[in-house]
Amino acid sequence: MREKNQIRINMFPDYDSLYCKYCYVYGHDWAPTTGLEEGITQITSKSTQSHRLIWNFPLEITFKSTNPSGWPQLVVSVYGPDVFGNDVVRGYGATHIPFTPGQHTRTIPMFVPEPTWRLQKFTGWLLGRRPEYTDPKVVAQGEGREVTRVRSQGFVTVSFHIMTKDMKKMGYDTGPSSPSAIQSEAQSYAK
User: Cβ distance 96 to 76 under 8 Å?
Assistant: First the structure.
């Protein structure tokens, strides 16, 4: 599976001058063959016409596998300065890489961990040490997150261009690629 994608638009109404870190999480049967598994974007600021942050940051990676278990996920972490100039996390989010070949757009809802007590919140704000994950990959795994208190905050839009090879040969059907193919497939099941 080859993936060319782009972290495009960021909607965080209360923040400016943000950058993004990304990484991929995948199962044991998957292996990246080309491309970067993690990286960091440039810092972007809101334009005067629209109040969105636009990165248009390209990503490209190729994976190989013989098993769909552990299908790759893209994990996105957004960071920016607080009032004291410290870089703090502004959001975490993850999405599975689309299964079907072609163009896809995903809007990833972002969230941030919240402190349990108000005193922790105040001292974290004062010292510039907000709650954050030591490893952002935990966002895609779910284990250990059930006791984490979080708050929704912003969205990141990612566009994907997916290419697959030998999926049918391996016995996997990723579905028809056009609406006419879907209709003809539905008619053949009806007979």
Answer: no
Dihedral sign computed on CA atoms, order 17, 141, 38, 5: negative
Query: How far, in Å, are 57, 96, 108, 141, 188 from residue 70 at the CA level?
Result: 25, 10, 19, 10, 32
9-61 pLDDT, tens digit per residue, is 678 877 888 999 999 999 999 999 999 999 999 988 887 777 788 888 889 99
pLDDT in tens, 132-159: 888 888 888 877 666 777 888 889 999 9
Instruction: Give the 3-state secondary structure of residue 183.
Output: helix
Contact 7, 158 (CB under 8 A): yes
CB 74 within 8 Å of CB 93: no
Q: Give the angle subtended at the CA of 64 by the CAs of 159 and 135, to the nearest 5°.
A: 65
Structure tokens at 37: 């598994």
